[in-house]
UniProtKB/TrEMBL annotation:
Keyword line: DNA-binding, Transcription, Transcription regulation
Higher taxonomy: Bacteria, Pseudomonadati, Pseudomonadota, Gammaproteobacteria, Alteromonadales
Record SUPFAM superfamilies: C-terminal effector domain of the bipartite response regulators
Annotated ranges, domain HTH luxR-type: 140-205
Protein name: Helix-turn-helix transcriptional regulator
SMART domains: HTH_LUXR (SM00421)
One Pfam family named in its UniProt record: VpsT-like_REC
InterPro entries: CsgD-like_REC, Sig_transdc_resp-reg_C-effctor, Tscrpt_reg_LuxR_C, WH-like_DNA-bd_sf
Organism of derivation: Shewanella litoralis
Length: 210
């Protein structure tokens, strides 16, 4: 007897969900559950989900990060896959080696995603080569969970009450770059929100002050 897997799609796009419900249950012998981002935690507690798909075209990056962190902390048996992953933004901080099985860019067709999911079901992870190379370069630049100088600068700026735009103007970079530094720092210091990062910095600032 074949085992039916339980997958969850977190998306605000009913069109995408309708398309996937027409394909995936028959193609992969899965039960597909749909949910809005705000309801994901409750549904995970009620249903035996094995893979969660995040549709990044309809979910705020900060919210996706917090939901991914929730899975890492409380559902070690659940894996994640990101679809509509943006190329133009550095959102590599969303990817976690112990939970993320797949990443598909926004220009990836449903047929290509299906081929990738076949590989995932065979126990392989599927990510774009350029994304893997850039992540390996990051690992080579920073050993372990050590904060970079720029991440320390951004954490320090949080204590003054600066907004992301304020910090971007101070450091002469884009606001999206500041968000990337923040979320990488969040992961390294083990927090999932701006308030938690400020509280951490208030206690440990002597360790991260530039």
């Amino acid at each position: 007897m074949f085992k039916v897997e339980n997958w969850m799609i977190v998306s605000r796009s009913q069109l995408l969900i309708d398309l996937l419900e027409c394909r995936w249950p028959q193609e992969f012998l899965v039960k597909l559950t749909q949910t809005q981002p705000g309801n994901m935690a409750n549904k995970l507690a009620d249903e035996p989900i094995s893979v969660v798909f995040f549709d990044l075209s309809t979910i705020d990056i900060q919210q996706a990060y917090q939901l991914q962190r929730l899975i890492e902390r409380e559902y070690c048996s659940i894996h994640t896959v990101f679809i509509n992953f943006p190329k133009q933004l550095d959102t590599r901080f969303l990817i976690h080696p112990s939970t993320t099985l797949g990443v598909f860019y926004a220009d990836t067709s449903l047929t290509e995603i299906s081929l990738g999911l076949n590989d995932i079901m065979k126990g392989r992870s599927v990510m774009p080569q350029e994304l893997l190379h850039s992540m390996m370069n990051d690992d080579n630049e920073v050993e372990g969970d050590q904060l970079t100088i720029r991440e320390r600068e951004v954490l320090h700026a949080l204590l003054s009450g600066s907004t992301n735009l304020d910090i971007a103007n101070q450091l002469f970079v884009s606001e999206s770059t500041i968000k990337t530094h923040l979320y990488r720092a969040f992961r390294k210091i083990g927090v999932s929100s701006r308030g938690q990062a400020i509280a951490w910095a208030q206690t440990h600032m002597h360790e991260v002050r530039v």
